[in-house]
Design the sequence.
């Protein structure tokens, strides 16, 4: 994206309804769309193009990346990285520095993105997904200890 302006990443206000395009992209990407945000969740978006949904545990300084998606026609242009880095910065500003996620070992695009954003593998959950595929666990900020 050299020469392109940084994409604008926004945080959805607490209690705001999910934009329709998020529900659409969620369904297109994952086959089913999750409902509105629970009180402990947070969502960052690049409007119409990308979103990242987190679950937050402020008392523990932890957050889990639940879902991240970029519209298929906009992938490979740095938007995934832009939205993830913005989330990480804002979560760190709230003291949420121990970050976790699960990912399919076959999802090489996502794994590459996480590695580029400073995440490290820290374990495996056998047969985690409903189709029997294992999940790799990744962490950022040394969150797996203790
Ligand atoms: C995973 C996903 C969010 C990445 O978003 P993106 O905008 O395409 O990623 P970026 O352009 O920011 O690229 C980030 C890094 O990943 C790499 N990457 C992106 N797509 C890749 C692919 N298909 N294969 C290998 N590496 C890939 C990029 O090269 C870049 O690494 P680099 O800086 O070393 O070049 C996007 O592919 C997506 O929405 N996938 C479907 C949903 C999904 O699987 N989400 C994760 C599980 S919740």
Sequence:
């Amino acid at each position: 994206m050299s020469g392109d302006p940084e994409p604008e990443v926004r945080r959805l206000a607490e209690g705001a309804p999910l934009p329709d395009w998020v529900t659409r992209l969620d369904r297109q990407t994952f086959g089913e769309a999750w409902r509105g945000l629970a009180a402990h969740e947070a969502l960052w978006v690049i409007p119409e193009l990308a979103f990242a949904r987190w679950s937050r545990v402020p008392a523990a300084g932890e957050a889990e990346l639940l879902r991240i998606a970029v519209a298929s026609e906009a992938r490979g242009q740095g938007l995934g990285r832009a939205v993830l880095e913005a989330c990480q910065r804002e979560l760190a500003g709230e003291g949420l520095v121990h970050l976790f996620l699960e990912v399919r070992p076959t999802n090489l695009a996502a794994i590459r993105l996480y590695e580029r954003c400073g995440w490290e593998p820290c374990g495996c959950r056998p047969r985690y997904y409903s189709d029997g595929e294992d999940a790799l666990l990744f962490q950022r900020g040394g969150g797996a200890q203790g």
Remarks:
- Residues 29, 67-70, 75-81, 103, 107-110, 112-113, 116 surround coenzyme A (CB under 6 Å).
- Residues 79-93 form the longest helix (15 residues).
